[in-house]
Structure formats: C-alpha cells, structure tokens
Amino acid sequence: MSTSKDGNDPKGKSVETAITNTSPCVLIVENCQVDCFVTSYLLRGHNVQVIAAQGPWQALELLNAEHNVKLILSNYWMPNMTGYDLLMEVKKSPKLSHLPVVITSFDKSPEIVKKCLDGGAKDYIMKPIKYGDVPRILRSLCAFNLTESYKY
Questions:
Q1: Residue 68 maps to which CATH number?
Q2: Is residue 16 part of a domain?
Q3: 94 inside domain
Q4: Complete DSSP assignment for 98-122
Q5: Residue 146 or residue 58, greater confidence
Q6: 28 Cβ partners below 8 Å, 6+ apart?
Q7: What is the pLDDT of residues 47-95, one digit of tens each?
Q8: What is the DSSP string of 57-95?
Q9: Is residue 53 part of a domain?
Q10: Response regulatory domain location, by residue (predicted)?
C-alpha cells in the first residue's frame, strides 16, 4: 500500500484505519464488565477488533443490524437468557447461522459443556479467560475465515 507523506493512503484514509479495518471482529457477550475488559484486552493484543454486548438481547440486536462480526464469544450464565439460548437463536437464524460461537463460563458441568458443544458451539472455555486461552479463540476464528474465503 502506498501512502502520502502525511501518512494517508491515496484514497484519504489513514494507514492505521486501513489496517484496523482488515482485522477480524469478535462480538463479546458478557454481563460482567471486568471479564469483558480482560477478554477485550487479550484479543486486541492479537490484532482483533472487539465489539461488546452486555447481554444476549443486545447481542442479537447488533447481529441483526449490519455487522462485520466473525465470531461470537459468549458467557454462559447471564440474566434472562443463557449463552446456550443465544447459541440456539444464532443457529436458527439464516442470516447468522454461519457464525462460530464459543461459550465461556465458570461452570464446568459436563452436562452444560456437552449441551453447548452438541448445540453447535465451536468451543467451551473455562473462565476467567487467560492469555493461554487466546489461541483456542483464534483457532475458531481462523477456521471460520478459511471456510468463508472458499465460498463461491
């Protein structure tokens, strides 16, 4: 990409904006602000854009509007709707069903983990999200991006 002396590309967008706009976008659905902040920080450190929703209903509103989300990272236990319920809403929507969903939770109940994975979640990660968990999230994101790039 060529740039002008002032750091702008020929079309007038700054180089920084151009680079940021090519980064994949993850929607974090999390009712705990601390968990959301930590997860956002970890993902942004890997050149991932982050959008946050404080609950499943807000997430569905964002997803049904125009978006560039490539992965949904959702807490399991939230008021009014679980991460599993959000997963089911996403999977039954023709517009959203292609999006990978990763569930996070402090709950390590084998029944809940199995239910989420059988329901179509790409992964189930124990909270708190740590630096070592980021590659698992990125694998789900990369697998999605590869399949998207080969669609006709």
A1: 3.40.50.2300
A2: no
A3: yes
A4: TS-EEEEES---HHHHHHHHHTT-S
A5: 58
A6: 36, 39, 40, 43, 50, 51, 52, 53, 73, 74
A7: 999 999 999 999 999 999 978 999 999 999 999 999 999 999 999 999 9
A8: HHHHHHHHSS--EEEEEEES--SSS-HHHHHHHHHH-TT
A9: yes
A10: 25-142
